[in-house]
């Protein structure tokens, strides 16, 4: 497993664990759950953009080293 895959899995696992803990909390109001859902969606999009950018940079470095 590559280092990038490990960190991606770790990051996503932490996010999923936090979301599950918060979402299943019986004290949360429906409005709070909705806000958390929107925040989760935004975080996921941001994380995907960061990971794509990092992958592109790694690919460029690999291309430079192997050329």
Write the layout of secondary structure elements.
Elements (H helix, E strand, L loop, with lengths): L2 H21 L6 H37 L1
Helix pairs in contact: 1-2
Overall SS class: mainly alpha
Order of helices and strands: HH
Strand content: under 5%
Helix content: over 70%
| Shape field | elongated
The span between the termini is 24 Å
DSSP, total strands: 0
Q: Which regions have little confidence, pLDDT < 50, spanning 5+ residues? A: none
The mean pLDDT is 83
Cα gyration radius (Å): 17 Å
Largest sheet: none
- Number of individual domains: 1
DSSP summary: helix tally = 2
Structure explained in plain terms:
With 67 residues, the protein is mainly α. It has one domain (3-66). Helix content is 87%, strand content 0%. The chain has two helices and no strands. The two termini are 24 Å apart. The model has no long low-confidence stretch (mean pLDDT 83).
Q: Tags for this entry?
A:
2 helices, 67 residues, mainly alpha
Task: Describe the structure concisely for a colleague.
This protein has one domain (3-66).
